């Protein structure tokens, strides 16, 4: 496999469920990201990990819990979500910092989450 | 704070016509600027980027963009649109510090008429 792979592609869950989103990158990159994409809103950066250390946490509610066990894998654990959390969750990776002059984000295809 | 504005939510062009998508940014210093494209059901893909030097940058799929500091703009252009260009386009700005953040605009959805 190549690039950034996200599973599952679609997820429907109730507000009391616990589920996880998985992301795997095959690019040898150092940094991994979770973004939230909601209709009619700009992409929202949720978390950034660099070399398995969390370096960004953009005031995300605690019902979202990231985990980065190694530089190739990133998880987003979901617990007691709200309907407004329904969105497309995009994982990305980069070799360098995304905002720096060598930075380029490589995105997965996303996990479409629906919270009932 | 940095921000990105894409004033057009939707744009419709005929196949073969030229295209220009607008992007304005707010940032005090020289920004790093990006255009990404998202096809339906896909993640985002980088089209082109500007860091310094020549203000006209070439990207993939025949796209180009011009950085105009005086107008704080980084508009995306293509001389002849193909039906496969129908997608959503996002402008983004990066900042020259230790931040990992890219600030994205809200996107412009491009529709292509046959």
Structure, explained:
The complex is a heterodimer of chains A (116) and B (114). Chain A is an all-beta fold and 116 residues long. Helices cover 0% and strands 55% of the residues of chain A. Chain A has strands spanning 4-7, 10-13, 18-25, 31-37, 44-50, 53-57, 64-70, 73-79, 87-94, 106-107, 111-115. In chain A, the strands form two sheets. In chain A, strands 2, 4, 5, 6, 9, 10 and 11 form a seven-stranded mixed sheet that branches. In chain A, strands 1-3-8-7 form a four-stranded antiparallel sheet, with no helix packed on it. In chain A, β7 and β8 form a beta hairpin. Chain A is globular and about 35 Å long. The model of chain A has no long low-confidence stretch (mean pLDDT 89). By secondary structure, chain B is mostly beta strands. In chain B, the strands form three sheets. In chain B, strands 2, 5, 6, 10, 11 and 12 form a six-stranded mixed sheet that branches. In chain B, a hairpin with a 5-residue loop joins β5 (32-38) and β6 (44-50). The mean pLDDT of chain B is 91. Classes of the chains: A mainly beta (116), B mainly beta (114). At the A-B interface, β5 and β10 of A face β5, β6 and β11 of B.
């Amino acid at each position: 496999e190549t690039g950034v792979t996200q599973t599952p592609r679609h997820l429907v869950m109730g507000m009391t469920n616990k589920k996880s989103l998985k992301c795997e990158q095959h690019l040898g990159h150092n940094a991994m990201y979770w973004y939230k994409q909601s209709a009619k809103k700009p992409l929202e950066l949720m978390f950034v990990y660099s070399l398995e250390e969390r370096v960004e946490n953009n005031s995300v509610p605690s019902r979202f819990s990231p985990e980065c066990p190694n530089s190739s894998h990133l998880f987003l654990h979901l617990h007691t979500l709200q309907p407004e959390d329904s969105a497309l969750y995009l994982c990305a990776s980069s070799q360098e910092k995304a905002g720096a002059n060598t930075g380029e984000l490589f995105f997965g295809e996303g996990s479409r989450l629906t919270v009932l | 704070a940095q921000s990105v504005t894409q004033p057009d939510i939707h744009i419709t062009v005929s196949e073969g016509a030229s295209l220009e998508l607008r992007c304005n940014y707010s940032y005090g210093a020289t920004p790093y600027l990006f255009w990404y494209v998202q096809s339906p059901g896909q993640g985002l893909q980088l089209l082109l980027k500007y860091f310094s030097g020549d203000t006209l940058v070439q990207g993939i799929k025949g796209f180009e963009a011009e950085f105009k500091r005086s107008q704080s703009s980084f508009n995306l252009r293509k001389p002849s649109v193909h039906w496969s260009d129908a997608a959503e386009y996002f402008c983004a700005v990066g900042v020259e510090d230790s931040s990992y953040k890219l600030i994205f605009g809200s996107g412009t959805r491009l529709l292509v008429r046959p």
